[in-house]
């Protein structure tokens, strides 16, 4: 099977690329060629910028694929470009959407693929919904062979918390120095974090899956944790005891706005402040045998080892540092 991954070297997509290679698929990666990831030897690299459609058109001239999966499409304009580029050139197009597109706040705690898509808090999520709408319109009207996949909080080379880190090492650095870290609410709301290697198991099962055309799926772990447990697991992996301070999502968002981090409102109020439990029955029907097997306590150890393997990965975000300092000051001065 000949598959093209647009991106293919990121936090989620690298694991999917490795697993596709492991299953002897003919893997092509279309990206700018700036990121080198171990374990991707043997792929065919197509060097082009997906945001320059004419450049991509030339790079893939005369080529067709069984599957095209775009991991870095975020806006309707991205989708319009892909529809022009890949109509008639692929048997399946997989759009990586986001589980944050699901209704916020939810009308039911258990999220299925039938949960409405609506997020009034986060532009990122509304753009993903608009992308899905365009693709499903193309499927209904023109037979464009789309499959939609919605990851939730998925990690490998990022630290998957709500406040304090993502691609940076700031949260762990603060924990090791005994500085306060911030958990939204009282830390008791429920959440799911999924290791990219587990995500890749289900994702590769959808590649070339005829019955998946026109369908949407979320792919997550079945492990449900509260946010206190998530931060405690990060601290345990770092070998320290965390100094946790709790603050309301509104307070964190207000402070973030005041220091020029407006996206925090969407990140919290439009996603992580609410308890979310995912029903993975659908993906398990389509990919029999799929089960997530990496518990967070184990996976986050791997992630921290990855950060600490190279000093340049342990960079500190001044924005995250300032946000936690400002919120901690307000909480402690109440």
Structure description:
The chain is 40% helix and 17% strand. The chain is an alpha/beta fold. It folds into two domains: 2-154 and 194-219, NAD(P)-binding Rossmann-like Domain (Rossmann fold), CATH 3.40.50.720; 158-192 and 223-276 and 295-332, UDP-galactose 4-epimerase, domain 1. The strands form five sheets. A seven-stranded parallel β-sheet has the order 3-2-1-4-5-7-12, with helices on both faces. It has a two-stranded parallel sheet with strand order 6-15. A two-stranded parallel sheet has the order 8-11. The radius of gyration is 20 Å and the shape is globular. The mean pLDDT is 96.
CATH architecture level-2 label of the largest domain: 3-Layer(aba) Sandwich
What spatial form do the alpha-carbon principal axes imply?
globular
Q: How many structural units, i.e. domains?
A: 2
Arrangement of strands in the largest sheet: 3-2-1-4-5-7-12
Topology:
Elements: E1 2-6, H1 13-22, E2 26-31, E3 44-47, H2 53-59, E4 67-70, H3 76-86, E5 93-96, E6 110-111, H4 123-142, E7 146-151, E8 153-155, H5 170-177, E9 180-184, E10 190-191, E11 193-195, H6 196-206, E12 216-219, E13 225-226, H7 227-238, E14 243-247, H8 249-258, H9 263-272, E15 277-278, H10 281-286, H11 296-308, H12 318-332
Parallel strand pairs: 1-2, 1-4, 2-3, 4-5, 5-7, 6-15, 7-12, 8-11, 9-14
Antiparallel strand pairs: 10-13
